[in-house]
Amino acid sequence: MRIAVLLAVALSASACGGSRQSGTVALVDGYHFGFIRSTTESSVTFDPADFLTGDLAYLVAVREGAIKEGGAVPDDYYLSNPSTLTPTLPVSKHPGVTVVRCDAGCSMGAKRTWASVRRSIERRPWPWWLEIRHGVVVRLDEQYRP
User: Fold this and answer.
1) Is the pLDDT confidence value at 81 over 50?
2) Percentage of the chain surpassing pLDDT 90?
3) Pairwise CA distance, residues 105 & 2, whole Å
4) Are residues 107 and 101 in contact, defined by beta-carbon separation less than 8 angstroms?
5) How much is the pTM?
6) Contact 84/23 with Cβ under 8 angstroms?
7) Local structure of residue 104 (DSSP, 8 states)
8) Given pLDDT bands bounded at 50, 70 and 90, which one contains residue 121?
9) Which residue among 39, 41, 46, 105 is least enclosed by CB atoms within 10 Å?
10) Burial of 68 by CB count in 10 Å (0-12 exposed, 13-18 middle, 19+ buried)?
11) Average pLDDT of the segment spanning 97-116
C-alpha cells in the first residue's frame, strides 16, 4: 500500500510540473537512484530520478524529447527526472559511502566517510544510489557517468 501511495504522489507531482517541492515524503526501504540536492550532518535532501538503460532508456528519452525517434541514447543510458518531490531523509551516524575515483582511470567503490564526502556533494552534480532501511539512509554510492 505504501508503494502505491508514494507512486500516486510521485505521478501526480510529475504531472503538475513546476518547482521542486521538499517535504516529509518517505521513500520505501531499498535502493533509490537520484541526486542529492543538499546535506546536513544528519540528513540529505534527495531528488529521486530514474536510471534507465536499453530499450526503456530509448522509449523514455524519445517520450521526453531528449532524442528524436530513431536516434540513439548516448552511452546506452538515460536519466529521467520527472518528479518534483525532494524529500529530506535522515542519515545514519556512520553510513557506508563509496565514490568514483578517476586517477589513471575511473573506478567505482572507493570507500569514504560521510563527513569527508558531505561537504563536497553539493559541488558535484553526480547522481547517487541511496540505500534506505527503516526510513533512514544507511548507504550512499556515487554513480559513475562516462
Assistant:
1) yes
2) 51
3) 42
4) yes
5) 0.75
6) no
7) S
8) confident
9) 105
10) exposed
11) 75
Quick count: other Cβ atoms within 10 Å of Cβ 76?
A: 12
Structural domain boundaries in the chain:
2-50+83-142
Strands 85-102 vs 136-142: parallel, antiparallel or unpaired? parallel
Residue 6 confidence class, pLDDT cut points 50, 70, 90: very low
Residue with cell string 536519466: 79
Q: State the sign of the Cα–Cα–Cα–Cα dihedral 51, 126, 121, 86.
A: negative
Instruction: Find the mean pLDDT for residues 35-47.
Output: 92
Q: Is 59 helix (H, G, I), strand (E, B) or coil?
A: helix
| Long-range CB pairs of 28-32, under 8 A, 24+ apart, other chains included | 28/2, 28/3, 28/132, 29/132, 29/133, 29/134, 29/135, 30/131, 30/132, 31/129, 31/130, 31/131, 31/132, 32/129, 32/130, 32/132
Distances (CA, A) of 98 to 29, 62, 72, 113: 19, 32, 30, 8
Q: What is the per-residue pLDDT for 10?
A: 38
State the first-to-last Cα distance of the chain, in angstroms, to the nearest integer: 37
Question: Helix, strand, or coil here: 138?
Answer: strand
